[in-house]
Amino acid sequence: MNNWFKSGSPWVWLSAGGVSISLISVIGLLWLIASRGLSYFWPADIYQFEMTDEQGINTTVIGEIYDRENIPTSQLVHLNLDLDTSVESIERLLIKTGNRELVSLDFRWILVPQISQQSLPEDLVLIERRTNGNFYGYIENIILDGRTVGLEKMPELVERVSEFQAEMEELQKVDIGAINYQIERTRLKERKHKLDETLTPELQLEFKNTVASLRADYEVLEHALMGLREKISRDQIVMRAMDGQKVTINFENILKINFNNQLTLFGKIKLFFSQIGSFISDDPREANTEGGVFPAIFGTVLMVLLMTVIVSPLGVVAAIYLHEYAGNNALTKLLRIAVINLAGVPSIVYGVFGLGFFVYMVGGSLDQLFYAETLPSPTFGTPGVMWSAITLAILTLPVVIVSTEEGLSRIPSAMRHGSLALGATKAETLWRIILPIASPAIMTGIILAIARAAGEVAPLMLVGVVKMAPNLPLDGNFPFLHLDRKFMHLGFHIYDVGFQSPNVEAARPLVYATALLLVSIIVALNMTAVSIRNRLREKYRMLEH
Amino acid sequence: MAIASKSGNYRKVKNSLAKWVITLGGISVLFTLVLIFMYLLYVIKPIFESAKVEAHAQFAITEPQKVLSTGVDELQEVAYSITQQGTINFYQLVDSSRYKAGAKIHSQQLVADGEKLVQLVNVGQEQKLLLDSAGNVQLIAPNFTSNFDSGERVIIPSVRYPLGEAFLPVEENNVALKKLSFAMDDEKAIFVGFTQDNRLIKTSFIAEDDFSYDTEFEAEYEEIDYSAKYVDDILVTPDLAMVFIREADQVAVYSLDEESELKATIIPQLAQNKSSPNHITSMALLSGGSSILLGDDNGQVSQWFEVASKEGREFKNIRQFKVSDKEPITAIYTEQFRKSFYTETPSGEMGMFYTTSEADLWRGQLHQGNARAFAIAPRADGLVIFSEQELSIFSVENEHPEVTWQALWQEVWYEGYPEPEFIWQSTSGSDDFEAKFSLVPISFGTIKAAMYAMMFAVPIALTAAIYTAYFMTPGLRRKVKPTIELMEALPTVILGFLAGLWLAPIIEIYLPAIFLLLIFIPTSVFITAFAWHKLPRAYKTLIPETWAPIILIPAILLAGISAFALSPVLELYAFGGDIRQFITNDLDISFDQRNALVVGIAMGFAVIPTIFSMAEDAIFSVPKHLTSGSLALGATQWQTLVKVVLLTASPGIFSAVMMGLGRAVGETMIVLMATGNTPILDWSIFQGMRTLAANIAVEMPESEVGSSHYRILFLAAFVLFVFTFVFNTLAEFIRQRLREKYSSL
After folding, report:
1. Which of A89, A320, A499 has its CB closest to that of B22?
2. pTM of structure
């Protein structure tokens, strides 16, 4: 034993423990996010519990099992429940009961010992709704235009409503949105002429006519919308909730009706993927706590793309300078220190700088020069997607520089010398020989920059991200890409829904799902970057021989 | 030939153009860093600039009568004077098409002919209360409306009467008054006066509805039990809670509730010497109405406010300002919205001070001791002085008096607090709020969070780095290293979310398990190691020692599970069933769910890959011949590691820790989500903190551009910037040196 200690072997094992802990935590973390995130999409069983409480009153609870935990019996003593106090702890279940119009809280705790019977009735349904969350219960009746019809009509009715909803959305967002946008632009044009003192009566009349014709178009669309509204609210479904109350739900409010307990494994898998699909492609509902995250994905991607356009040339040029042009002098040393520091400065500092310099100073001046007609409401003098992209471009600049430089340093100098010896200029050598060979390294740098930018939240909170953006920064109205608009972001969505939403408990699974989405994007990007880099290294190793 | 040279030229131009563009691009990185630095400095600079007072305009105006009061409109275009005869005169201050600067543009008689004003009480900066010799009062508000009729902005002065145009009696039986003070809100107006027959009276006008749109009221008369022959000053606080009555060197404080009872008597300890005793010469209410300022003839101003002490609430002398060496202070003028005040001595020496930050902002001579009336412009950006022959306007540049180096970093005695404290509290609902900008609690929080994170991260990261770089087989290393480095790519918002919503509740329930883990994990490692040591040789070759990290995974998991399983048992027997209650009640430590422990673990995870990656590089690149030499001389693997490898790589390891610290200090999202963000000064592991970075993230979106708060948040960002700059540069410098050393070896 003593010898064993003297050999130092236990300490070697202890240091191996450090590796194990790190591995456990990385893999554990990813597993935690993956399991919690995916379980959000998996169709849950809907239970019916018959409960008997301490006064012998029977109640029925219907819902999904959301969470379970053991609590010490001692903590329950004050409730005066008729419990077996010899047991140390009691299991309790958190049930998601939905039906928000009947009970104020859609969650409730039940104690396992009070459950007298537990079943999975086949005809229990889960209705996903646009407002008020889920409804759990039994179908009583289906009413088609005032007449009671059979259950087989139900899928058809849901389909009909969703078609109308899509049509209405198209009308509201695209057509009416475009008209409103044009009216606003006409108003601004008029104001601009007024400010420039070039508003002639003819122009004024023209603007007036334009607005009038737009208004007329609007009336037509409004009328069409009203018609759709009338059609959509034709059918109802009557449901029986867990306490026997009957509730009539209009089909226009229904997204999906599922008999979860009747689903086969295949059916569940199908539903699982369709849930993932709608999570990715739908708009959020109910203050972001339900529905999909499409605008957040869109915002993240757009912002990151804009950032890539800015950061790639800058980073590559800086890396080329550092590696190919810079002499071994004080300036180069200073530059290297600058790169290291740009990488080390806390991201929030970039946010502060971006807000002060880009938004208020540059943006404020832009507004004064080019958007005077909209003042005092700012155009670029307020946080927006362009400022976010520029701020993050500075933040990720060192990532691109470091990675590109590493790629450049792996190119054997023989290749440069060969090209120069054949009479090519330095610029030509760079353009024809060096850059093509280094391009995978540049790719790696850009991918790593994208991964970094996609996960960064703190600076964005200052320079352009919002919890709910009414419009996407890209739409069908000229000039199509609206760089001044605010946007939604996956990372901020996690922060906002997880910490700022009114019903954190209900929103938590959605946050896990969003986190899973973000982590998968970032891990995939990183793995791609690393594999490109590794392949590149192998290639250069071969070149050297 | 011609073509060739043409294309040669073109290529040359292209070549040098490329060189210039690339050089420019390279330098732009440095430019960006310098730009960030300079811009942050540019925003911060104004808060440390001293105040400036400059003569703006002077007009020779001779008022035939004594001027009692003066004032100016918000944009400083029209000034007015109110004379003893009850005339208000408005003067144009800037040239316009209708009037030249200095011209009298409007005049109005406010009292009946022959009547004289006894006293004029300034009510805020906009309203004046006139007291005539018969003891009647009238409240006036000089009013300025702008008119754009002729295409030019014209200011039209007039007089408004918030309590009606009639003169109102203050004393029930119309006895004349010697001194009067007044304050009002929307529902009530209170007068406290000292009558000719030496009684102290209190008169309340209670609005029937609301004074802001209806002047109807009901009067209530009262007498305060106070006996004196004379009073020097009476001041009613704007919130109608108290009245201060100064008689020579003592100040009585009465509450103005239902019963006007004596609350306290302030008797300042004046520097007494027998030949010439010092006396109080002036008194003023500070903005917000909870502090009074007393000026004496020794040139000192003292600030007093009510604090809670063992003997109940009492007025205390909080701080002094030495204004002058020999001259008495004849008047103190306070700003309406900030805690700034101006002092005046008989020779016309003036000073500008700020109480909270104890700032001595400015001193100078604005008149020759002949000023009749003095007023501060409504936006506190100018001064008006009416002296015997002239009207002078001064411009004041004093944007950020509340920020001084001491106020940011030293204990400050804020109004209502029992003692000087470090407090960060930037905003509140009310206007009278005294902003508390101490950077100490949030800087402390930053250091605390970083320390706990480092305590968690450094042991794990360094042991993992040592093993990976020195003991691990290359095959395993190629897999393990990228896996751990993957952690660096995880968005911190996800770590923060898990810390706040998943880890914090777990730690709260299984707190004993966390401490058990500290014992269980090393123990399980040692037991596994010993078991492997005792394993028969045949098995040892089957599972080689180089697989240690993999062998240990189940052992550590088992240790973890048993720690969590034992947690409730330990809690029941050692901590009486509930460790939270044990901590709060028995140990008397307050417990937050989102505390430093949670932050330490979560931020530790974020920092581990940074430290691991760099330390691993440093250890791995120790030249192989050094270790081979040591091993050849008979040292064991461990001895070689400790005596040769770690020693050689120590600067690299140090720089890795530095980088990690830099990251922990600037981390925002984890701290924002995993703590309660309360700015407290407490090292306790069970309490939260607020860090510089989280503070910026929380408050920046709400702060008004250009305000002191905005600039202080920039200062916080600047502190972070400089801090990480120093750490990163130091770490990079050490790394460069080390690289050179290795290459020379």
Report:
1. A320
2. 0.89
